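Worked example 2:
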Amino acid sequence: MDLENNRTERIRRARVTRKYQLREIIRKYDVEADIVKRQFLADRASVREKLISELTAQWFQIHREKRAMDICAPGTFLKGLIDVEYGWKLPERRSIQIKHRKAQNYEIMLLEETKKYFGMPSAPKISRISDEDINRDLAQMRVSLLTTRLI
């Protein structure tokens, strides 16, 4: 009888232990799932904040450039005081002017080399049609021949 009581007590303790271990596993799973969910939401908020910040910066940059171009447009007034007549302003710094000039000269050099070695794409030369070609075309269209041409 003592062995039977011992056995039933061990089985009862094993069942209670298993019940508590199962509760602990479920609790641990819930905690880890909550941590993962919170981390995901934090990462998503961080990415959203970063994208909104970048888009806002781009929006302000675009509108800053737009306002600058509106100021430089001919016929507009700068704060109602000055009528701007020129759309392109030369840079004030000499180093930037030299840099622009070098870039322009380089582009011209490339175009000249392309023209020299490959030929530039252009329209064919247009010349006046001869009277013989006109008469031939009119004959094919069965129209009376052109004998004199008025200039």
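The chain has a mean pLDDT of 82. The first strand starts at residue 76 and ends at 78.
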